[in-house]
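Troubleshooting: if your tokenizer reports a length mismatch, compare your output against this known-good record of 115 residues.
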Amino acid sequence: MDWLALRQSVVASNVANANTPGYRAKEVRPFEDTMEMTSLDLVRTSQLHMAPVQGGSTDFRLRAAEGWDRSLSNNDVTIEAELIKAGESSRMMALDTGLTRMFHRMVLSSLKVSA
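Known-good structure output:
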């Protein structure tokens, strides 16, 4: 969800600066690339467990967007491209929220059965 929130924020910033002369559109590095460079941190709940290897934290980096066109003001923000990204982010957030809701319901139903 943090990646999606950052992506939505970057898209909003690009749209807000669509008429700013010389503004270069930004985008968040794809989630797959971020996950390939990130390791998950493990937690030890007992001294008998193996010690976790020190891993990195999640780092969402921005990069220059591959623009479609450049305007006369040397601005490369394309509203259509940003709307596509905003729609993709919205659908991904809806999917993530739906999966979280289903997991929560599953946990609640298992607690009701065992109680």
